[in-house]
Amino acid sequence: MRAPILALKDVRLADGPRMLFDGVDLGLEPRVRACLVGRNGAGKSTLMRIIAGQIDADSGERVVTPGTRISMVPQEPEIAGGTLLDYATGGGAPGHRAEAELQAFGLDPAKPAQGLSGGETRRAALARAFAEDPDVLLLDEPTNHLDILAIETLEQAIADCRAAMLIVSHDRAFLERVTGRCFWLEHRQVRRLDRGFSEFDGWVEKIEAQEAEEARRLDKQIEREQHWLARGVTARRARNEGRRRRLIAMRQAKAERLKEARGSLNMGLASSGVSGQRVVEAKGLAKAFGERVILKGFSTRILRGDRVAVVGPNGAGKTTLVKLLLGEIAPDTGEVKLGTNLSVSYIDQARAGLKEEMTVRDVLTPHGGDQVMVRGQPKHVNAYAKDFLFTDLQLRQPVKSLSGGERNRLLLAQALANPANVMVLDEPTNDLDMDTLDLLEDLLADYDGTLILVSHDRDFIDRLASSTIGLDGTGRAVETPGGWQDFIEQNPGFFGKPARAEPPKAAPAASRPAAQAPAKLSYKEQRRLAELDALIHDLPGKIATLEKALADPELYGRDPASFDRFTRALQAAQAQLSAAEEEWLALEERREALEAGR
Known about the structure:
Layout: E1 6-15, E2 18-28, E3 33-37, H1 44-52, E4 59-64, E5 70-73, H2 84-88, H3 95-104, H4 118-131, E6 136-140, H5 148-160, E7 164-168, H6 172-178, E8 181-186, E9 189-193, H7 200-230, H8 237-260, E10 278-289, E11 292-303, E12 307-311, H9 318-325, E13 333-338, E14 344-347, H10 360-364, E15 371-374, E16 377-380, H11 381-387, H12 404-416, E17 422-426, H13 434-446, E18 450-454, H14 458-464, E19 467-471, E20 477-481, H15 484-490, H16 523-550, H17 555-558, H18 560-596
Parallel strand pairs: 3-7, 3-8, 5-6, 6-7, 12-18, 12-19, 14-17, 17-18
Antiparallel strand pairs: 1-2, 1-4, 8-9, 10-11, 10-13, 15-16, 19-20
Helix pairs in contact: 3-4, 7-8, 16-18
């Protein structure tokens, strides 16, 4: 293995009384592509700043090969200068290279650097970093505020870049495509996996199972030592002082383990009662703002329990479409009929409901008092805040002091307290760590209301959406059963090429002739449908057998290897069944649509 060009050795850093890092080791070799994963608040951004040399650790070493150029895109970039070209050359990048990178990310170099959208700010910061041609590139949540096409542009830029990279991101699909190593920041230290992110979850599960077994053994040892201590250590004080010290050390280890135990989110989501079967019916919608056309002739029907994703480039009109469907703004032509008994909860990507000077407590109890009405039942604000991993101290802190992930958690806490049978989530994944995302996915999967989701997170969409509406920015809108991958497979070329590979004045996608639609499923699709039928029939029996084996409370102690094997087999079978059901549903809906169109 090549020597690292940048490394941290035994790094320690305290944030007041709280230790953030306690002996962190981390190295980046030339051209390595690594991700840094950890929960919100673990200190990922702080560690990135230490690596970049922006702040110093309390102790330990930061070793950098002489002449190494380092560029960093922080979680919240600040754009300065007269134009974007001024900003992009501010770090020393040559003008021609900065101009090329800005254009590659779909930006006009002459555009003023003020008044940018979140997506434009992110793309400008990325363009500047790539233009600097660094040896080490640090990216902190680089996909935040980027649409899916811009993320694909970023993926191509990473593939073309020669720099070593360390990336902090919650976007699973993105990390699976670009990384070949994982660093896991947990319990103030960093563990390393020399494989891509697709292997990360299984690796973490194995580590956590080992730690759980070690904790169980420590508890048993403490019980034995406490029993011994109670039976006469005083009479043998000199001879057994070492044993007593070991017991004290074990107790301290357990106390530290309990102190470091990760909090668990306790989100809940309830419907406000059953809406009508028809939630939204839209016919022939058209909308334009001046010369900018958002929609032309779009129709859809959203039924109770549907999970509808809305995707497209930034500025294509995704939020406008949602507001049209909810009756918040009127179409230029066409009509929208809303169902009966609708109760809507809306989580806005702009976090407009959060005021900088408000405290966390103010947000959760806007009318004062110390109670939060949670789905119709009173709950003390401290207890409810803890469900979303906020401490009693944070209740008194202003919103402006919270991280991006904490602000999103606060918005979720605010929204989920109110029962609703229609939930609208506009970019809900920004800044959330993966544990929170997994929980949110489970929560929404079990939600018995209707979900409208605007997101750039491809994995999140694929796991949740029953249908996907794509907007291309020219007024075209198409709805396809399934998630993002289904949409791309069934609508090839709808969005054109990613911005990095597209000439500035390419003809819009709408000008290309549409492919002739097939009249029925292909032979391969028909065969796959039959295979899925067999899987869906057989897998539940296999899952039941594995669950029965794992229900044996003595299995782990008797045969840990079998427990581990059965657990992995159960998870694989459950995932296979879920994937098979989703694929079968998409193929079956496609078959019905083709037959109906004959």
